[in-house]
């Protein structure tokens, strides 16, 4: 499927329900990871993502292992990562170690901050072990995104992006993504940035809202408020998928409606302007001449 689409597989989760923090699971973990690395080689994937804890459906942490001390978990994580990195070096595939948020999606996960992940990567020192820096997770757990990037970007091998709260498109939450992207660029990061998110609104919904409400919509600002997204996000995604800005599309829909009403002798221009969302007949005539040429 990826070959048909012309989109290469850059990576996938490689550890399933097994945990690096549990010394008793290390042998089984490494055996499973070996198979994941072989699968990555077969697919031509450059990386495999690993976590401190085994994850179940929906990202549920299967075994927080509260019975194990912090010291045992950390030492087991280090030893397991070191052994995993040797397997990755043999396979020629990079491991991406991902800290996860514990407030919303993965309560009980052991590895929850960038510093610990980055220092483990630096201590092990393998070219095949990197941090997967997830902007969404780390905003929830620690904030200070740009400062963290400047401190630890040298350990990053992959970046995930989604806004917080909500895990939706950039522009739907509180994260200043232009500054985050600038920090990554200034820090010299040149790897993948993947969008791992749940779309807030589809472009199809925006199109439907325009067609249903073109008579009453004042403009793109009101449309973005109705859809619950920022204006910049709406304009960017709408233009990418439809080929024109939402403002231009709204004007086109209004002009279509004007043309249909002009076929009837029942309405004068002032009435048609009011029925199609124009502020008056004079403004309607100016826009009509600009768009249609007559």
Explain what you see:
This protein has helices at 2-5, 26-43, 70-91, 114-124, 135-141, 145-152, 177-186, 203-213, 220-227, 231-242, 246-262, 269-276, 281-292, and strands at 11-13, 47-50, 94-97, 129-134, 156-161, 192-195. It is elongated. The chain is built from 13 helices and six strands. Helix 4 (114-124) links the parallel strand 3 and strand 4. Helix content is 50%, strand content 9%. It is an alpha/beta fold.
Strand adjacency order, main sheet: 1-2-3-4-5-6
Q: Could you give the count of β-strands?
A: 6
Question: What profile does the largest beta sheet have?
Answer: 6 strands, parallel
Helix/strand-derived category reads: alpha/beta
- Taken as a percent bin, the fraction of beta residues is 5-15%
Large-scale geometry: elongated
Radius of gyration: 26 Å
Number of helices: 13
Pattern of helices and strands = HEHEHEHEHHEHEHHHHHH
Low-confidence stretches: none
Mean pLDDT: 89
| End-to-end separation | 49 Å
Q: Helical content, roughly?
A: 40-55%
List the helices and strands and how they pair.
Elements: H1 2-5, E1 11-13, H2 26-43, E2 47-50, H3 70-91, E3 94-97, H4 114-124, E4 129-134, H5 135-141, H6 145-152, E5 156-161, H7 177-186, E6 192-195, H8 203-213, H9 220-227, H10 231-242, H11 246-262, H12 269-276, H13 281-292
Parallel strand pairs: 1-2, 2-3, 3-4, 4-5, 5-6
In short:
The protein has 13 helices and 6 strands.
């Amino acid at each position: 499927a990826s070959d048909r689409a012309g989109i290469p597989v850059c990576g996938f989760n490689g550890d399933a329900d097994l945990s690096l923090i549990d010394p008793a699971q290390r042998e089984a973990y490494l055996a499973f990871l070996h198979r994941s690395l072989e699968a990555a080689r077969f697919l031509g994937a450059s990386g495999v993502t690993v976590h401190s804890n085994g994850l179940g459906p929906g990202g549920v942490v299967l075994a927080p292992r509260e019975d194990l001390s912090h010291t045992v978990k950390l030492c087991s994580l280090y030893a397991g990562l070191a052994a995993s990195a040797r397997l990755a070096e043999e396979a020629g595939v990079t491991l991406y170690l991902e800290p996860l948020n514990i407030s919303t999606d993965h309560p009980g996960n052991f590895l929850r901050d960038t510093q610990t992940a980055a220092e483990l990567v630096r201590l092990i020192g393998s070219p095949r072990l990197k941090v997967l820096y997830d902007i969404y997770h780390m905003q929830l757990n620690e904030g200070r995104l740009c400062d963290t990037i400047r401190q630890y970007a040298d350990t990053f091998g992959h970046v995930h992006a989604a806004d917080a709260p909500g895990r939706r498109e950039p522009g739907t939450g509180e994260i200043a993504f232009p500054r985050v992207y600038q920090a990554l660029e200034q820090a010299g990061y040149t790897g993948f940035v993947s969008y791992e998110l749940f779309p807030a609104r589809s472009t199809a919904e925006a199109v439907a809202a325009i067609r249903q409400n073109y008579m009453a919509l004042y403009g793109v600002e009101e449309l973005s408020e109705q859809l619950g997204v920022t204006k910049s996000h709406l304009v960017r995604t709408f233009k990418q998928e439809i080929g024109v800005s939402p403002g231009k599309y709204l004007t086109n829909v209004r002009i279509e409606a004007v043309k249909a009403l002009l076929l009837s002798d029942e309405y004068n221009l002032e009435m048609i302007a009011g029925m199609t969302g124009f502020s008056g007949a004079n403004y309607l005539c100016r826009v009509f001449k600009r768009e249609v040429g007559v």
